[in-house]
What we know:
single chain
Amino acid sequence: xxxxxxxxxxxxxxxxxxxxxxxxxxxTFYAMGWFRQAPxxxxxxxxxxxxxxxxxxxxxxxxxxxxxxxDNAKNTVYLQMNSLKPEDTAVYYCAADSRVPMRLGxxxxxxxxxxxxxxxxxxx
Length: 124
């Protein structure tokens, strides 16, 4: 049974930090992504990484503020979020790609498993 268990969301003031975690289990994954969806907006990719190698992706709006990392031994991916802004407020989702070994996808269709989502709220 595939599971993506997220944790780490919450309420933080602007300028603060949060770290999200996603523990993955149940099958082999080739890439992991963090997406977010704000009310009334489409789900968008924030960052992504492959389980092997150093390839990562960051959306322009988080470059220099967010860092994606992984602990292969724990099958866990993290999203360190610093210098948070009110516009970062959204539900954040962890996603896993089990289908294409050499791809680092940034689209919703590139991922076949999703976590339940965790709310991040940044107050001004």
